[in-house]
Design brief:
147 residues, mainly alpha
Length: 147
């Protein structure tokens, strides 16, 4: 759903896989290799990684929005940068483990299928309606969206 907004706005994000790999490697390193005491809790590590991932996205968005550099160029550079940082972080491509049981439980959870459509589609349609390409797609208070 996150990539939907990028595609609808007419852009492309080539770095999403490399950033996800970097964030995953960062989480594994924080829990296994660099134990941070109370900050090694899987929930705390997940929150830290969400903040780092958001900061990466905001930094790339800054260059695209305020300096008008094409998203292809910015995200291509991000893909190469974060792939390199990930390999350096992991020492040339080795795996990290074993991960704590709490982190495994967090990553194998289940969210009912009805939650996504009911909570994410209306804000997505509203955000898409605010773009130049979707100027007539806004939802009004009387509109009912069925998943």
């Amino acid at each position: 759903l996150g990539m939907l907004l990028v595609i609808v706005s007419g852009h492309i994000d080539l770095s999403v896989g490399s950033v996800a790999g970097f964030i995953g490697a960062l989480a594994a390193m924080m829990m296994v290799i660099w134990p941070l005491g109370p900050f090694s809790n899987p929930l705390v590590v997940s929150i830290i990684c969400l903040i780092v991932g958001g900061a990466i996205g905001a930094a790339q968005g800054y260059w695209i929005a305020y300096h008008r550099i094409p998203s292809f160029i910015v995200t291509l550079a991000g893909m190469l940068i974060f792939r390199g940082i990930c390999q350096a972080l992991l020492g040339g491509g080795s795996s990290v483990g074993p991960l704590p049981d709490g982190f495994k439980a967090l990553s194998s959870g289940f969210i009912p299928d009805v939650i996504g459509p009911l909570t994410l589609i209306p804000p997505t349609v509203n955000a898409a309606g605010k773009t130049i390409m979707g100027s007539g797609l806004t939802l009004h208070m009387t509109t009912i969206v069925l998943g």
